[in-house]
Amino acid sequence: MGVLKKIGLTCLLLAWVLPAAASLEKDFVAAREAYAKGRMERFTAIANKFPKDHLLAPYLRYWQLKSNNPSIEAMQAFIQQHPDTPLADRMRQELLHKLGETGDWRSVLQQTGLLVKGNAETQCLGLRARLALGEPSAEKEGADFYRAARDLPSACDPLFAQLFARSALTEEDRYTRMRHALEANNLRLARELDSQLPEDQRMQADALNRAQKAPEALVRADSNRRAQREAALYALAQVAKKDPAAAAQLWEAEQEAYPEGERSYGWGVIAMAAARQHEPRAMEWYGRAGERLSEEQRAWKIRAALRAGRWLDVLYGINGLPEASQAEPTWRYWKARALKALNATATANALFARLSSEFHYYGLLAAEELPARLEARPTDHNLTPDELAEAEARTGLKRALLLRKLDLNIDAVAEWDWALRGLSDPQLLAAAELARREKWYDRAILTAEKTRDIHNFDLRYMTPYRDLAEAYAKRNDLDPAWVYGLMRQESRFMDYARSGVGAIGLMQIMPATARWIAGQLGLNKHKAPSEVKEPETNIKYGTYYLKRIYASLSESAVLASAGYNAGPGRARKWQAEKPLEGAIYVDNIPILETRDYVRKVMANAVFYSQRFGNPNNSLKARLGTIPPRSNAPIVDEAAPQPE
């Protein structure tokens, strides 16, 4: 009877607690909606009654403070009371702005040091504080920050005014920033910088419009104004993007009207455009540019040398990169390959050995270059019940899961990521397992990838929807490991994933592509997006489309992966006139997103193949040799292509 009484009491307690919790969650959502709509009376009424010890109570307190122009003391108190939530960091950003207004630079510097996630405004405030307090390195860091091409908030203007007043920034820096802005196609920023010049030094009012509409004429027009010549160099870049050979011919005729440094820069612009389009004369034009290249121009010189098989140029090019860039896996791998090709085998193997311990695309490739093949994957860490229980009890993770339950996904992700700070490898893996059990697959994967020494590859390379994925892979005669590698990269297995351009679901199908596939399969072409998003339909459509691309692109997984992301027409356009090593093809893909995508899909496929019982599969074999460009039809003339 005692046991029955306990069970009865437990049931009664649950019957009371669960509805109460649901009621509070409804109150929270109502309060958030009222705050968003500016209905502060209703918001305050709900917030005042909400339990102060509830997981979500910090959000209500944060919104209350935000709406009442809080004092510095109130902001500091909130930060101290709620250190276990990213709201503390958001409030610290607000506090920094207020401290900056008062000129309390010592406090600004202190708070900047405590900030976990800053932005351009807080970075500028921190630099202003360091300048005010006499830190010697602040001038150089501020000047470097200014020269970047990105838009910066008006809060940075006082910093830059100080740097110009101290001669830490000069007019040459303004022109440098203008050039970087034009390289990034940031015409708004370029015009703003031009407006800051003396009137007799500015470019013509319509110069940038002419650079886009009639670029050749602008290049031919002589000018003694530096800004006008920067517009002309931008115009030269527009010609080169369409036809590098025409740009080279134009520059050959007009370059004498420009100073020597600008002549070299013009050849660098043409050479990089040629390298991106796989024009064989790219290396010739790089030779005319000399060594005064931007980092991006230098990177494309290395890629052009790779495509041409010029290993000495590859090595020299990598050695000429900034140290931070040389440390990237891409250039460490290709430096080792260049050394190996130049018979410096021992040095190459030392580089390969260090890189092979890293679990990514280049780590896998490096392992295959070593005389003795290394095991690519260590034993998985098996979680204990205590480790899982600790994760389930962690306040930040619980708050993140509750926010996700309420469809507040941005806040949920922020809470989750905040809660991971400082966790050990086993704690990270326990959190990843918790996310997996909640079917929050993208967080599970990203959390498992954060481990440093202890790993669990079943969590990194999980297999949701396995029955569906394997069935449709088999139906289309596709490698399930490759299908999983692609699906993982497309959506991290979040079936509600939707891209900025409208791609839907696990395999990110565009609506127009879905209609075409449905027609090919004899199905209803007018399925609602919610139906296309449904896992089985999405996998069915995605694997069908992948198979069609694969079949029309020489049954190359590399070409098909590139085609799935950027369009099969582009994947074929990037092929050479002769056979090309797969890894060299991948690193010469001109679209950064697609280049990174193909690397990750192909590496994913190796890890999934290992998980599916094939420990000795080769990434180099998967990449293969890319055949010469073909003129055969691609997929179907009516098939929609990605933009």
UniProtKB/TrEMBL annotation:
Residues 618-643 are annotated as: Disordered. Gene3D superfamilies: 1.10.530.10, Bacterial muramidases, Lytic transglycosylase, superhelical linker domain. InterPro entries: Lysozyme-like_dom_sf, Lytic_TGlycoase_superhlx_L_sf, Lytic_TGlycosylase_superhlx_L, Lytic_TGlycosylase_superhlx_U, Transglycosylase_SLT_dom_1. Belongs to the transglycosylase Slt family. Keywords: Signal. This is Soluble lytic murein transglycosylase. GO terms for cellular component: periplasmic space. It holds the Pfam family SLT_L. CDD domains: Slt70-like (cd13401). Residues 1-22 form the signal peptide. GO terms for molecular function: hydrolase activity, hydrolyzing O-glycosyl compounds. Residues 468-578 form the Transglycosylase SLT domain. Residues 392-449 form the Lytic transglycosylase superhelical linker domain. It comes from the Bacteria.
